[in-house]
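Task 17 of the worksheet. Students: predict the tertiary structure of the chain below and write it out as structure tokens. Keep your answer in the requested format; marks are given for formatting as well as content.
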Amino acid sequence: MHDHDPSNEYQPPFGIAGFACFICWVFMLFVARPAVALLDVWWAEGLVDAAFPLSVCFVILYGSHWHREMRSLARAFYLILVSGIISGCALFCGGAVILGFFVVVNRFTAFHY
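Model answer:
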């Protein structure tokens, strides 16, 4: 086998889970915000905003063939931890993209005297 040949080992679906988590964060921010705001309790709003992307990421990872050799309870806890890490990275990357967008827009729209 050469270095450029694809391996037969299964790769974990981190990219798919991260992309789905990012899309869920965007969905929760722009679409579901009015429905979540009806709860009118700050901690419940934060819990719903965080639980939906985490659960989507967990379902994607749990449905994959990644670490099927582990016991189900240990695998579930491990995938919850990995889902939290992926969700945090997706939130951080989304914030960096939004911040970069504002910096670029501010540079182009700044007034020059």
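Marker's comment: The helical segments are 14-30, 33-37, 42-63, 72-109. The chain has one domain: 14-109.
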